[in-house]
Amino acid sequence: MLTVALPKGRIAKETLEIFETIFGDGFKFDDRKLILETPNFRFLLVRNQDVATYVYHQAADIGVVGLDTLEEQGLDVVRLLDLKRGVCKVSIGMKVGEKLDLSKPELKVASKMVNITKRYFEERAVSVEIIKLNGSVELAPLIGLADMIVDVVETGTTMKQNGLEVVQDIMTSSTYLIANKNSYIAKKDAVLDIYEKINAVIKAEQKA
Ligand code: PRP
């Protein structure tokens, strides 16, 4: 039995579709239920930011989560496979027409992703003030809370609608299959079995 942590929403749906492709029907959560049991798997519905926490503490053996979230949290888990879904970027955005000038003193950067932001500017030896927000980050430059934001960009619509544009990409993200380090050893056969089956689905899609 493998326990699988999935983030609510689109990623959960897409992941369960992969399991359905592999094993056939029956991979649907009942209304509001957070656990789904099948003969060989137990699926948990958790918040996106909590997937790696469940896996790290071995409350789940494997999980599915965005690379951006993994990089932000830095928890020690095994990155098994890029599922080639949920592709997005983490980018710096500024008001349209403004230029990124890292030599300017006292730059303020608003973001949900403070660790990715901190790393990016530290690597360039630029000292910035990072303002942690929990959402609606695009507002910050508009009302003068920050000079720029670091945020997830998928279609670019949110930035555009708010008069912002990408001035610099920081990383590309997509959805990853991850495993707990101990589970990876103790349940190696089961983990590798599902890894190979999922990999086959992804590969078949790429050829199609
Ligand atoms: C992300 C991000 C942007 C938006 C970008 O938020 O923070 O607001 O999506 O997508 P777009 O480029 O397609 O417009 P998300 O919807 O993940 O919600 P969250 O703020 O709860 O993380």
Structure description:
It is built from eight helices and eleven strands. Strands 2-3-1-4-11-5 form a six-stranded mixed beta sheet. It has 208 residues and is an alpha/beta fold. The chain has two domains: 2-86 and 174-207, Periplasmic binding protein-like II (D-Maltodextrin-Binding Protein, domain 2, 3-Layer(aba) Sandwich); 88-173, 3-Layer(aba) Sandwich (D-Maltodextrin-Binding Protein, domain 2). Helix 4 links the parallel strand 7 (107-111) and strand 8. The structure holds 1-O-pyrophosphono-5-O-phosphono-alpha-D-ribofuranose. Residues 135, 137, 151-158 line the site of 1-O-pyrophosphono-5-O-phosphono-alpha-D-ribofuranose.
How would you sum up this structure in a few lines?
The strands form two sheets. This protein has a six-stranded mixed beta sheet with strand order 2-3-1-4-11-5. The protein has a five-stranded mixed beta sheet with strand order 8-7-9-6-10. The protein has helices at residues 10-23, 51-56, 67-73, 114-123, 139-142, 157-161, 181-186, 188-207, and strands at 2-7, 35-37, 41-46, 62-66, 78-82, 88-95, 107-111, 128-132, 148-153, 164-173, 175-179.
